Amino acid sequence: MSLASSTIASLRQRLLAKEISPRDIVSDVAQAIEKQNASIGAYLSWDLEKAFAEAEKADLSLPLGGIPIGIKDNMNVTGEPCTCGSKMLAENYTAPYDAGAITKLRSAGAVPFGRLNMDEFAMGSTTENSALGLTRNPHDLERVPGGSSGGSAAAVAGDLAVATLGSDTGGSIRQPAALCGCVGIKPTYGRISRFGLVAFASSLDQIGPITKTVEDSALLLNHLCGKDARDSTSLDVDVPDFTAAIGRDIKGLRIGLPKEYFISGIHAGVSAAVKAAIKKLESLGAIPVEISLPHTDVGVSTYYIIAPAEASANLARFDGVRYGHRSTAANDLLEHYMMSREEGFGPEVKRRILLGTYVLSSGYYDAYYLKAQRARTLIRQDFEKAFEQVDVIVSPTSPTPAHKLGALKDNPLAAYLEDIFTIPANLAGLPALSLPCGTADEGGKALPVGLQIIGKPLDEMTVLRVADAFEKA
Length: 473
Fold this sequence. Notes:
Layout: H1 8-16, H2 22-40, E1 43-45, H3 48-56, E2 68-72, H4 87-90, H5 100-107, E3 111-116, H6 150-157, E4 164-168, H7 174-180, E5 183-186, E6 206-211, H8 214-224, E7 254-258, H9 268-283, E8 287-291, H10 299-314, H11 333-344, H12 347-360, H13 365-386, E9 392-396, H14 412-416, H15 423-428, E10 432-442, E11 445-455, H16 460-472
Parallel strand pairs: 2-3, 2-4, 7-8, 7-9
Antiparallel strand pairs: 1-3, 4-6, 5-6, 5-10, 9-11, 10-11
Helix pairs in contact: 2-3, 8-16, 10-12, 10-13
């Protein structure tokens, strides 16, 4: 078994036993990248010499000492590019500082290694919107890996990384984790600092890990969470030892089954795999409870008003003046702004900026943005009522397995609906995890299916407990 295909937990045991060194792990990951990245396209760049230097200095007494972690290319790492999968930042931006999550990883001894591909500015669910190259699903190279953290999920699934970081605004950790057969968790909004994460939609964005096992996700959460004075939205709450959730039974836990998430239109193979997973949870002693989340049907439309509105404000900073792409054809200041943004942004980013600017404009703010915020409140209240009856909520992560590359290229609405089951947790700020629960047959291919587990605010512990029990069973 290669080191790149190993878990964090097993690598740490071997490191402490002095069977391997941190350099060995980095070298093995680098060899896997050299062999497979040309076909998978998970990484945009990597600095092997820098990673070797950090590995040589790794403190093995620290809990993540010597473990290389791949980084989605929208998080700043000192001295490295941070392109956000966009021409806007690909040419001349080098990060001058570490993001809060990177600081936390380094403090625990981990080695950030490599920049992972993504949908441009995290806008998309296929990673086809990257301006810098295509990422393919390791289970079928003719299919998408999901998005926007497609590079992060494909790297873990293809054993080009031990574990990675992604970001999740409407499902961008969980959906690619589901389509690639990995574990991905979006913690409670505010659990992990967003400082140094390039903003898409600030009230929705959250960093989280993508890993090979639930235990590895718990290990990383232990050292990613916590208050950061540089992020006013980060929560000043105690960080438990999330690994305490590992190995516990789930007898008596109430598992909510929202009727709105088990609807016609879900791929038959996905439906069968998720229903089998629920039966497995029952066999482990969990109690299924049918619940209702009545405002699920407005989740996608609510999200696609709020997220673009926030994106239009956040992306206004990319004006070609301070950093980023600068047009050389402009003759005056107005042309400079317009041409720099026209040349620097891709079509999906432009679509969302236009939509967001429209819903915030005079005469439309009340009709769209204000109404969407009220709908968001109703969605959050749906979850609050549901959690009076249950401990966690389970559902499919994605309504379909990975589709063929280009299949939804001319149908953005169909692509938006891929996130129908993941978006509500972001709108409500809840912790949610996806883990593999079987496969669905699609064109003769057995493709991964993800089971989503949603928890109460700050109750990642129960989410991990249920996920680990299912994974082990």
